[in-house]
Amino acid sequence: MREGWRWFGPKAGVPLDHVRQAGASDIVSSLHEVPIGDPWTTEAVSERKSLIENAPAGRAPLRWSVVESIPIPDRVKREGSAAKREIDAWIASLEAVAANDIPIICYNFMPVVDWCRTDLDYETPTGSTAMRFDQDRFAAFDLHILQREGVEADYSDDDRSRARAVFEAMDETAVAELTRNIASALPGSTTEPLTIPAFRERLAMYRDVDAVRLRRHLIEFLERVAPVAEAKGVKLTIHPDDPPRPLFGLPRVASTAADFAALFDAVPSPANGLCFCTGSLGVRADNDLPAIVRRFASRIHFAHLRATLRESDPRSFHESAHLDGDVDMVAVLRELVAEDRKRAEPDRIVFRSDHGQRMLDDLTKTVTPGYPSIGRLRGLAELRGVIRALEHAA
């Protein structure tokens, strides 16, 4: 397995030497500065690739092997194949990536909001901080800040009572912080930051989009792009929903093994693949992660490896250390390593230590939420140790 590292580009202030020092060989990155829906150019991708891969004399080489992500415009999710202009632009970006020999593209199909957290610095018992999704705080936002149409029907009496207590205890600063965390697009997000009025307006556009229609739109998108990817030698990898359940009354269609089976049955192209994210899928107790790897092993080209810990209300969770939490990481890695050993070098699975707790010196620095270097470095070291042990045993 190839060790990857998410790099947010030259403006993020993290030098590529830090990636080398972590021991990673593969870069996972994107042209984050390009507006959602605009086509990438071959020249822009080439310029970024040269920055990554033209190592100074004596430095370890790096390879840009995964694009994460080319954002899919909201109109594609709402209208499917009718969003021809947007899909054409996405294909142009794919072609620019392929022209630069970058073999993997990660994407997601979450409507309106991408990955969602209520807290960015939840303090753990060790004194480190982690990202957290607190169900009561989320409900407080949904019911009392966003106040979306029909919201009451999605919560029980007890849910609404707890949410009201949470909201009433918040001052203006706390309300602004919670709104920013949920509506303003987290790092790496492929959706646009939204004001509260714009959020309500966007949700209203999905009034007639249920899970059946959203899945159909995803399939229509893949029916257009997968043949191009296959012809160009690029693997498309869908990222699971995070959290893997409906939010804001919106459907989500990449949360379970059944969701992936439906997608691969509908579009059997070998270019139609999966980004296996243990953190997203592990939030659901009914997801058997090692079984999902075994079932879809040939479709997995990229993996996000992190762990989450469900709390007393299992709808709430926080990011745990990579070998802790509810994910049996050793069992997952055993399956991934077994699949990886079957592959030739160009097709090896790329993984990255996803997210990470904020700890040590990072507690005193400004860091990208979810992506502190030290927490990810700890995670990569732990994962590397497990992988080496499994490879030795094999």
TrEMBL record:
Keyword vocabulary terms for this entry: Iron, Lyase, Manganese
UniProt keyword Lyase present: yes
Enzyme category, top tier: lyase
Reactions catalysed, as given in the entry: D-mannonate = 2-dehydro-3-deoxy-D-gluconate + H2O
Required co-factors: Fe(2+); Mn(2+)
Listed pathway(s): Carbohydrate metabolism; pentose and glucuronate interconversion
GO molecular function: ferrous iron binding; manganese ion binding; mannonate dehydratase activity
Entry EC number(s): 4.2.1.8
Pfam families: UxuA (PF03786)
Domain of life: Bacteria
UniProt cross-references to InterPro entries, sorted A to Z: Man_deHydtase (IPR004628), Xyl_isomerase-like_sf (IPR036237)
Family affiliation: Belongs to the mannonate dehydratase family.
Identification of the protein by name: Mannonate dehydratase
Natural source organism: Plantimonas leprariae
GN (gene name): uxuA
